[in-house]
Queue: 3 jobs
Job 1
Amino acid sequence: MHAMQYEVTLPADYDMGVIRARVARLGHLLDDWEGLGFKAYLMRERGVQGSPVNQYAPFYLWNTVEGMNTFLWGGGFQGLSNDFGRPAVRQWTGLAYEEGGAAGAPVRLAVRERRPVPEGAVAGEVAGEAVREAARLAAQEGAVCAAAAVDTGRWELVLFSLWAHDSPAADGDRFQVLHLSAPERARLPRGRQW
């Protein structure tokens, strides 16, 4: 499992209706993408849910590197680059994935928490704690799913969760979910990934 995200930060007075319309028009294009566990089409609006910025920031969980590479190099990503410029694409190696009790419910909100792996920490212990945190998040009321992943280039953990309501028991940046493409979500491996 591989996690991926890019962020397009927009001006404070940007009409976020443009992003909503873009997702409504194009979101379905990844509904059957081979190798994709899910893509959450995420948006933050300045002043909503504590966001300091307007931002379009899709988050992906991939089942296969081939699916991810086909998206990045085979044309899927090019449309966004043409419209907004090419953003940096963050990638994390999957540590854990869990379905929540609200797995079948419509998704309303996503929460992403990034935290550094402290210098001198025992990496396996930090990763183990992230796995437990993903399981804890997935067990909360209204949780659709939760994942933990790590970027070993930056030594940064990411905890990502999807929610069926607007007040989740999770810390981090909150995003509105405009659409969820989940062609291979059922194939995402559950639990610890090592």
Job 2
Amino acid sequence: MGEHNEDQDHVAEPARPTLTTAQARDMTAGLRAAMDDVRRSVAVLAARVHDAHAARIWLPLGHSSWESYCAAEFGISRAQAYRLLDVARSLTAIHDAVAAGPGTSRTRDSDPAVAAALDYGLSQRALIAVSGRTDTVTQLITRRLTALAHSGLQALDEPTVRAVVRQAVRDLRTAPPPPPAESPADPALAELRRVVDDLAATTHQLGELMLEVAPAYLSDTAATDVLAPLCEHIGETLDNGLAARRYAMSGDRRALHGTIL
């Protein structure tokens, strides 16, 4: 009496019959649908938060601030209240960039909740992480959508736009910090550095285009088959295209040694 049997904490569930492949796929589809519903809910919530904050909703209800409004109406903390704003700010900026992009006008909608509900597959953590750099991420998205539209090799359908947005957010979150800007005393050396910096920036843009066509999960060998037609189309060598792709993935200029630099 009074003794505790550890096995009682882990009572075995009745054995279940092994799922068939079809049943497992059906269950997986259900999980995927539930995850999609969660992401859509986040998008709609972000749109509502954006509208409520822009309208200063707390004033007619007698609250002194956004945070006091959220605490009184929803019982959430100050930190949670401002995280909601971060998510709303990021998602609104991203959607505006997509809607303004070439060939993506169909994503414009008069109802912000419907417009924002385009599922980019971004987590709240990712949206919060880029909330302080929305200008940078929207410029990246715009540049990549424009490059794809001009290449004519890939339709800007919803899966493509989603992939562009996700890759841009991922790249921004993982990009190494820029090197400190130190101007050499020698004017000739300073000019040479400027030329190299300009070439590197142009090459990074080329690499971003290569990544959209051959995503980062592909090896150089697998990417070769995909990129060869693109490089021929734009008049670039395949070696340079692969080097630019490696540079866009790593941010390390050593990826360009022996090819472009």
Job 3
Amino acid sequence: MTDPSPQPSIGRWALIVDDHPLFCDALELTLKSVADFAIVRTANSLAAALEELDGLPDPGIILLDLNLPDVSGLDGLLRLKRAAEGAQIIIVSSMTENAVINSAIAAGAAGYVPKHSSRATFKEAMDRIAEGAVYKPGGFVEGEGEDTLPDTDSIERLASLTNQQARILHLICEGKLNKQIAYDLSIAETTVKAHVTAIMRKLGVHSRTQAVLVANEVKFTTLLPSQD
């Protein structure tokens, strides 16, 4: 993480989330040259990113790599969207498959920029997003490859979960029972049961097992590059 001072103002700072220091440095220079961000912070993991966001006004832009040490696929995007609802999140990834781009857009990404893109492409993306559009890279074919990843409807349903519902679903995925979840979150077990019911309704499933399957689908295991 970077030095916490100076304190950023609402919307006028940016956050880069990527575990490659040299690429973070390059993105920081790019952001400062193509957009009016005086303060740019970096984080090398989702946990570090969430720590950066804690207690601060939402950044204007978050640049996010999908493949991080502590998260993969769309899970990081979904969690950052809940943590910084006012931020525009742009995926910056080496994965350029249409299926991945389709899914990221369905999950609420404001844009998708391949890692090999030029500075001019990043400026184009920023300009398009500032106009209220969603930026999609050149060569992207709308709808192509959707059958190789979870359907966008499931992704949109996951994106609709509240922060508390998302936390509870995460604990369900860890195999925890309602009583354990209630203890971990310091809430009543009846409250957990109500949330679980709401989660299953939003996901369109009828059991905790089905909810876990839907949640696990967003990790893109077969498309992510190796961590070795």
